[in-house]
Every structure is written in C-alpha cells, then in structure tokens.
Amino acid sequence: MKLTAKRKRADSAAAAVAAVQAAAMGPLEPPAHVTLRPQDRAFWDGIVTARPRDTWTTSDLVMAASLARTQADIETLRALVDSDGLILDGKPHPACELLEKATRRAMALSRAIAVNTMATVGRSADIAKGATLEREARQDAEDDDLIPGIRLIK
Questions:
Q1: 3-state SS class at 87
Q2: What is the pLDDT of residue 96?
Q3: Do 65 and 73 contact (CB within 8 A), yes or no?
C-alpha cells in the first residue's frame, strides 16, 4: 500500500494553481530547530525556491540550511582571498584550502537535496515542468501589479 499522496501532473491546471499559490507564499522558513545567520538568508531563499514548495521535507530543509551556511562562508572566504591575495608570505593563502573544501561541501549538499542544475532544470530536452511553473508564477507576481490577489508574503 502506497503511503505518500499522489503528486499532481506538472502540466495540469491544478499544478498551475498550486504553483501560483506557492509563489505567493514566498520562500519557506527554516524548521524551528534550525538557526540561520543574517548572511545565510539570501542563500536560503534561493535554495528553497529552486524546487517546488510541496517537495521539501524537514530533513531536506535542515540540509538546505547547511548549504546556505556553506554558501555564505564561501563568500566570506572569497572576500578574504580577494583582499589579501592568493599568495601570503610566499605561500598559498590558508583560506584557499578552506574555500575548496567548502565548495566541495556545497556541491555535495546541492546534489543531496536536488537543487543542482540537473535536478531543477534537467537536460535541455527534459526540463522539470513543476519548478518552472512555480518560478514563472513567482516572476509574474513580482512583475505584474495589475493582477490583484497575487502578492508575495514577506
């Protein structure tokens, strides 16, 4: 016996309505037991809007928070290397090794929670329709102030 609910077809009217509703709700919030730093928030919003809202589980959201933290750390490390240079006292900047490790971690987390390009966009011949519908609905809500009722909740 199947325990999960049947998913809507991505090309159905019901899926289009669900995409508009999800886009109007704005990005998901992290679980209550997960803390994001202020510098993580922009990355969090980008990560959780990369997949349709109804596909996220609590464990996925915990990993998404780790990815957001890692991406914020990558930017901090990049800024440090940019300001100090790649070479310090004739040796590679110590942040370079940390930057490489963080980048690898980010790539692994992206694959694990399926927010990498192949998971969200797919091959050019096989685009993930559900995520596309939600992104388009979100964009329409931002661009068109003539449509009443579609407002992003922040």
A1: strand
A2: 95
A3: no
pTM for the full predicted model: 0.69
Q: Residue for token digits 């579609």?
A: 150
71-to-11, 82, 94, 130, 151 alpha-carbon distances in Å: 33, 16, 18, 25, 28
- Mean pLDDT confidence for 66-73: 98
| φ/ψ of residue 93, rounded to 5 | -60, 130
- pLDDT tens digits along 102-130: 999 999 999 999 887 666 666 655 556 66
- For the chain, what is the radius of gyration of the CA atoms? 19
Q: Cβ-count burial of 129 within 10 angstroms (0-12 exposed, 13-18 middle, 19+ buried)? A: middle
The tokens for 29 are 């919030």
What is the spatial distance between Cα 46 and Cα 26, in angstroms, rounded to a whole number? 11
Strands (E), the chain: 87-88, 91-92
- 83 to each of 71, 74, 88, 99, 141, how far by Cα in Å? 18, 14, 11, 14, 39
Under a CB-based contact definition with an 8 Å cutoff, are residues 77 and 97 in contact? no
